[in-house]
Amino acid sequence: MPGRSIKSVLRAERLAARDALDVAERVEKSLLLASHGMGAIDLDGPTVVSGFLPIRSEVDVRPLMDLLEDRGARICVPVVLDKQTIVFREFVHGAELVSGVFGTVGPGPEAVELDPQIMLVPLAAFDARGHRIGYGGGYYDRAIHRLQQKGINPRLIGIAFDCQEVASVPDEPHDIRLHGILTESGLRDLSDEAIAKIG
């Protein structure tokens, strides 16, 4: 089966598993994830962190965003501009949110655009090597590439529930590996330095 077909099957399976979690369980697991992330994510001075506002059955990462903001992080969230592009706009409590595509909401065009140094990345599925399956639009891959062209190499932390893990994600040369995966069980550091220590 071609890599894309395998990814489609894995995406559907893991999203179904995520959808099967009841609301109370998702809330509990999201709070556990926030608690682990609060202690495990290093902020080196004032740091720009991109989170996201949850849609469908995604992890609710807002409690973690609040905790990181309390520690001095500047928070931004993705806003879809068109079929190719997302930008990251500052997320300020109390500011009006506007409707976007795919059922998303986000800060309006008056909000400041920021370049994240740490990205909390939503995903459909992941494996132990740090490879992810997104939702199929390639928005994050393109956004990360644009940041890298500007000389910014953000730390990429996948956000998911444990039930979204798969044995192996088919990866292609252009795929960008995550530096860590944060679930309700804790943060797995998948940076090259951490893997070298384990090896």
UniProtKB/TrEMBL annotation:
Query: Tell me, what is an example of a GO biological process annotation in this record?
Result: folic acid-containing compound biosynthetic process
User: Keyword Transmembrane: yes or no?
Assistant: no
User: Which residues take part in binding substrate?
Assistant: L53, E58
Listed binding positions for ATP are K7, S8, V9, L10, R11, R132, I133, G134, Y135, G136, G137, G138, Y139, Y140
User: Could you say which enzyme class this protein belongs to?
Assistant: ligase
Going by the UniProt record, its keywords in alphabetical order are:
ATP-binding, Ligase, Magnesium, Metal-binding, Nucleotide-binding
Q: What EC number(s) is this enzyme filed under?
A: 6.3.3.2
Q: Name one GO molecular function term.
A: metal ion binding
Q: According to its UniProt record, which cofactors does this protein need?
A: Mg(2+)
Query: Can you state which reaction this protein catalyses?
Result: (6S)-5-formyl-5,6,7,8-tetrahydrofolate + ATP = (6R)-5,10-methenyltetrahydrofolate + ADP + phosphate
Q: Which domain of life is it from?
A: Bacteria
Family as reported in the entry's similarity comment: Belongs to the 5-formyltetrahydrofolate cyclo-ligase family.
Q: What is this protein called?
A: 5-formyltetrahydrofolate cyclo-ligase
